[in-house]
Amino acid sequence: MPQGKVASVPDDGLSTRQRRNRPLLVVHTGEMKGKSTAAFGLALRGWNQGWSIGVFQFVKSAKWKVGEEEAFRALGRVHEETGQGGPVEWHKMGAGWSWTRKAGTEDDHAEAAREGWAEIRRRIENQVHDVYVLDEFTYPMKWGWVDVDEVVGVLAAREGRQHVIITGRDAAPALVEAADLVMQTTKIKHPMDAGQKGQRGIEW
Amino acid sequence: MPQGKVASVPDDGLSTRQRRNRPLLVVHTGEMKGKSTAAFGLALRGWNQGWSIGVFQFVKSAKWKVGEEEAFRALGRVHEETGQGGPVEWHKMGAGWSWTRKAGTEDDHAEAAREGWAEIRRRIENQVHDVYVLDEFTYPMKWGWVDVDEVVGVLAAREGRQHVIITGRDAAPALVEAADLVMQTTKIKHPMDAGQKGQRGIEW
């Protein structure tokens, strides 16, 4: 648990309160497990603050469904029914982004990824959510489908309180440079090393 | 995302299915953010499987309340009311463990930690939960309040499907040795380095 001590006080003209409430760009990178789970664990905190949570999964398969999705959808319903927590939207590329209403973008991942980013950009510019989880979003940037400099520019110019959490391996240097918080997860030991395959409740 | 390939097939007399469904001991260790958030993110998957979730937080303060607690309590109510997901229990040392019904164990953390472990041991022996999150449990072991070898022995002998997730810095070598999955989180960059203090929705 952080002790609340800061390494240095920057000469940025901001008060401690202003600096404290600056929205964060968080990057969770590294190997295998832990990146997305940590991002969704963090989003639970935002939900509990009553914040609007927008999840955008840049995964290829329409079928891939993680337990977090069902849990967050349940939390979204809790918000609708009782007012506790915040609203939740969960969008997935593989199934065809829900706002495009067209199924099967499986054939053109690059185009689907660009559509996803264009929508996220619109939402950021309109301050739609308080927390954006851009899951596996490093890959469209890595593969050149989405321009890293444009992403960094849009994030740098974002207004209000909009926390952005990006997960995935091989985060671009410009993204790491722009981020406030970068966490890397390293596998020290994994069951697959001992011949154990992934299992439900753990891997998904 | 893991591809489901294993590095080697062990000569342990188990079928792939048996091996696949072996319960895991997971240790999330490393610096600052990401350990507990990843553990709770993982527990969301278990909840979605309809599993019984037991969280035991070995934190000192009764006041410390993270957003995950409220979110998981809400998910527990979703289970009670609709049958979706699994039941959730959340216990905290700092407030006095709920089962002892005595407040203010703040004066003897060692005794409170031992009580917590004794209860967890009983539950594991009685197969009460499917997922145990023992948050910050490395510290009572590090400080000698709870015997590491006893913990490792109880976990090794546990029956049925009981996944155990332990978080905290400085995990004991015997615990790491016994674990199936060990993830370490490393801070590459943190807002406190730039003079930004912790903020709600992010740090708690």
UniProtKB/TrEMBL annotation, chains A, B:
Keywords: Transferase. Residues 1-21 are annotated as: Disordered. InterPro entries: CblAdoTrfase_CobA (IPR003724), P-loop_NTPase (IPR027417). The keyword Transferase applies. GO terms for molecular function: ATP binding; corrinoid adenosyltransferase activity. GO terms for biological process: cobalamin biosynthetic process. The keyword Transferase applies. Transmembrane segments: none annotated. Signal peptide: none annotated. It comes from the Bacteria. SUPFAM superfamilies: P-loop containing nucleoside triphosphate hydrolases. It holds the Pfam family CobA_CobO_BtuR. PANTHER family: CORRINOID ADENOSYLTRANSFERASE. This is Cob(I)alamin adenosyltransferase.
